Amino acid sequence: MATAPPVVLPKPSKAFSSRLRGGDEVAWAITLFFALVILAVTALLVYELFVWGLPSEQKFGLGFLTSRMWNPVEDEFGALPFIYGTVLTSFLALLISVPVGVGAAIYLAELASPRLSNALTFLVELLAAVPSVIFGLLAIFTLVPLMREYIGPGLKSVLGFLPIFTGPVYGVGYLTAGIILAIMTFPFIISVSRESLLAVPREQREAALALGATKWESTWQVVVPFARLGIMGSIFLGLARALGETMAVTMVIGNDPSIHASLFAPGYTIASVIANEFTEATGKIYPAALVELGLVLFLITIVINGLARLLIIVTAGKGTGRG
Amino acid sequence: MTEARTRRRKILNNFMLTMTGVCAFVTVATLFLILAYLVYNGGKSVNFDFFTKLPRAPGEMGGGMANAIVGSGVIIGLATVIGIPIGFFAGIYLSEWGGKTVPFLVRYTCDLLNGVPSIVIGIFAWTIIVRPMKGFSALAGGVALSIMLIPIAARSTEQFLQEVPRSLREGSLALGASKWRTIVSIVVPAARKGILTGMILGVARIAGETAPLLFTSLNNQFWATGLRQATASLPVMIYTHAVAPYEDWHRQAWAAGLVLLLLVLAANIAARMILSRGMSLPRG
What we know:
A: mainly alpha; two-stranded antiparallel sheet; disordered C terminus; B: mainly alpha; MetI-like fold; 11 helices; 75% helix; flat
């Protein structure tokens, strides 16, 4: 017994374990490679946009952003009408979609039974899956005639003294684009706002109700302010979508590169001018100006998206912290 | 006095709560209006020819969009073949090899790329494929769509891998399996339903994209004979047919819209049904 042979570590085991470790390193390297591909693609995207836009960037400088000229024949390009159209249509969209979207989110989070709420949320998310070209197709044949025959003349007869509701109603224009964008941003605002509202601790509601508040007072004065950052985040998320939306807007905006005060007037957005003119842009400056417009759009949406995510992350942290 | 105030508060309460219900109803009703209108108009226009014939010249009646259906399939197939593996492996990296700087950067970049407007992705694909290869091609369209698919695939893979319980990983490691063996045999199979769902939703999302294809795969009235040719796709066909001034083209646009929407919605519903049956653990 005392002369039991000393335990010898089997040699193959060491080789085996080091081989396994090697396997882990290979797997790590492969997955890391693909992760880095994402970084590389994104970096290349920014680089390509910048380089292909160079002729225009060099010729116009920062004046590109403030010039109202868009004359391919004279090689004079300015981004202002498109920035104006993009911002205006997105603003109109939010004007409609924020009240309706937040209202719907309140209903889904506070009033509807969990079953109904989940079913309706599923349907709202399906709305987000509808391709934008289909929104455009429907808008051309339903919203545009409606706007021309009823909504436009109606608004003019009631609010015609305002400069934003003057001029001929063609059917296509800023307001039509704003309405279709509003419908397209509903799902983003509703689903993120609903989640922020659901993350509000129960005690907040109960405390308000115990103090004698009605359901609405508790919701509007306690729950909504508590979730306000998340709701803001959802609005920015919707805004980023609206700013970058191409097809539906292109089909109803009217394609006029100038600035109008009237919401009935045809206009243009950054995304839709690129969609319409890129394939026919010839020469050196023209395509470069369109690429530079793309770069401007890219930068705007990055900032808005970044803000949205920041707000959503902040509320998520807050909800768990206090809840 | 107080009674009047209480009554006013009650009326406001009832009114505002009803309004929130109206808001929810309006948004959901929009979806059904879209569906109903498409089914009504598209249903009249979809016929056998739509799936088997080529588009006709403007003014001529009839014809179909067979080339666009096949073209869409080819472009989406290419995007899937390129985008899914990159997204999948990157997702594994994000979930399983948690470091600090690199995963944070990759995650941030994914969200950034996901938020890039699709028309800008189109410009990018044009600069890296169409210009160097001197021509519009199905390949360029596929690359453009794959760039949209990668961040979706990566983040959803990461998300579903993270939901696999730690104990499963530890059990496998305790039995002596290496990390990659654990990932391949335990973690990924445990999350397979979730990952599949994410992939289907991603492909459904890019399937309806039009803007990235406008100046990459362009359009084609005839059959494309190779990946290096301009290729027709359903979304671009819907666009060109809808804005054209010909009655019969509008009819075709409705038919194409109905087919596209049904495909996309079916994929979405199927994906959610896979997920709702729960994440099953690997057997045996």
